[in-house]
Structure formats: C-alpha cells, structure tokens
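Hey,
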Amino acid sequence: MDDIDAVIKAAKHFKYEDSEASYAFNRISDLPESKSKLKRAIKERIQLLCASYISLASFLPDEDAEYLLGLHGEQKKKRSIKILMRMMKEMDKFEKEIRNFDPFELPTPTTRDTLDS
C-alpha cells in the first residue's frame, strides 16, 4: 500500500483540472517497486474498493438489522424476505453504478451529485 501511495505522490501533477502540468512523464527510478508489481497492486486495490462499494448495500437500518437478528421477538418470513430483497436490489444498483463509473470522466456538478447519491 505504501508503494501505491508513493506512485500517487510522484504522479500528483496528473490531475484532470491541471492543464499547466510542466511535464507528462516520471522517472522509472522514482518507483519504489517494479512497474508490473505496482500495476498489480493498484488493480487489487481497485477491486477491493469496488467490492467495498457494493458491500455498502449490506449495511441496513438498525431497526431492520435488529429484526433480522431476532432481537425483537420472532421473525415473520414475509418481512425478512422483503428486507433481504431490498438489500439485494441495492447491491445490484451499486454494482451497476460501479460498472458505469468512468474514472476518466471530468468531474462536473452533476457527476459529483451522482457520486454522492
């Protein structure tokens, strides 16, 4: 992880808004690890972040979570299924958001609002 942070720091001038970047290259000797190891580590971090984003759907309102855990008496099958189906729909929605996300799209007020929802 520290290696990836070093790459990010070295390439910080590559911002979409920064049209005045003085150069568009970095020295390979500045890398803390081989390029292929860093690429693999970055891809693994991206996969972890995508999975984390999708798993946010499994965080339920406290009332629903307590109900499913049986903390408020006996569960009713119909309500349990409804809660779980809502969670699954939200997971599908989050997965679609990740698939449609374009990291190279320039941020605009509209896209920022979409990211925040």
